[in-house]
Amino acid sequence: MDPIRNPYAPGAGQRPPELAGRDEQLDAFEVVLERVRRGRPERSIVLTGLRGVGKTVLLNALRSAAVRAKWGTGKLEARPDQSLRRPLSSALHQAVRELGHPSDSEVQHVLGVIKAFAQRDAPAGAKLREKWNSGIDAPAASGRADSGDIEIDLVELLTDVGGLASDTGRGIAVFIDEMQDLMPDDVSALCAACHEISQSGLPVIVVGAGLPHLPAVLSASKSYSERLFRYSRIDRLPRAAADAALVVPAEEEGAAYSADALDAMYAATGGYPYFIQAYGKAAWDRAPQSPVTVDDVRVAAPEAEAELAVGFFGSRFERATPGEREYLRAMADVAVAIAESEDEELDDIESVPTSDVAAKLGRKPQSLSPARDALLKKGLIYSGERGRIAFTVPHFGRYLREQTA
Description:
The chain is α/β, with parallel strands linked by helices. The chain is 53% helix and 9% strand. The chain has three domains: 23-233, 3-Layer(aba) Sandwich (Rossmann fold), CATH 3.40.50; 238-317; 322-404, Arc Repressor Mutant, subunit A.
C-alpha cells in the first residue's frame, strides 16, 4: 500500500492517529479542570507505567485539554542531574503568558518572582553573566521565592502564580515528564507545595508522568503524598482498544485488516501502544493491498522487530556498562526459569528476586548493589517491592535472550 499514506507513528512521545484506550483518563481530567475552575478541591495527578505505554502522549493530550479550557500550561522533563528551578521557571513563564491576565502590573510582578526563583539556582556570589538568562522581561523580585530553600521558595512561587490564575477564573497546570528523575529535595519541595496549594484552594495542579516506582519515590519523600495525588496506572491496551488503534486510522485511509491479521498483531505487540505503531507501520508498508492479512503481518514482523531492536531496546541497552548488561541478561534468564518452574509463578510485571539474580551470576547480592543501583538510576529497571526488580521496558527480557541466542 502507499507508504506516503501510512498513518502510523512509532515515535517517542508522538501522538498516534487514534489515541485508543485512554478515554477514562481524558474524561477524568476534564472533570478535574471544571472542578478546579469552580473552586472545588482537587488533587494533582500522577500517571505511571512502563516505557512504551504512551505516558508522554497522554500527558500531552491532557495538556491540550487544559489549553482548550484556556488554562495556562507549561511542561518540563525532569533530569536526574538538573535542579527543578530552571525548567520549572520556563514552564511557569509559558503558563503565565498563556493565561492572559488583564493586569500588566500583576503579570510583571509574578514574572519577577519566577525570575527570582530561577536565578537562585546560581551559586552564591555569582556574577550577572554567570546567572542563567530565563528570557523573562521583568526585573527579578526581591524577598519572594528567593530564599534559597527550595521548599519555601516553591510554595511562595506557586502561591503567587495561583493567585494570578484565580483572578482570571481559570487555572495553571504544570506537566512534568520523567517525574521519577527529580532530585530528592525537589520531590520533597514539590509535594509540600502541592499540599499547601490544595489547602489554599488555589487553581494550580501538577500532572506528572513516570515509571512504575514513582509513587514509592513520592511516598519516601512525604508520607502524605499517597493522599496528595490521584494515581493512574497506564498499562497496555485491552484487545478492543488495540484493534481500534490499528483499524480506525486504516479506515480513514480506505484500508482494513482481516480478523486473523488483528489476532497476529495483538499476539506480536502484547497491546503495548508503541509496539502497535511500529508493527502497524511495517505491516502497512509491506502489504500489497487492502485488507492487511496475517501473511502481511508475518512478512512485516522482522522489519518491525529490527526497528524496535535499534530504536527502542538497543538505545537503552547501549547505556549500560558491560557489568550492568550481565546483570540485565541474568534478570532475563531468571524470569524464564520462574516461568518454567512448577513451584513459582511469574507475576504480571515479570519481576524477579534480586537474590535469584545474584545466584544466577554466582555472586553475593551485596557485591551486585553498584550495578543494580546504576541500572535503577538509568531507568532500565525498577523495584516494585523490596527484594524484587523488573524491567522498565516491556519485552526487554525477550530482546536480551534473542541477542544472546
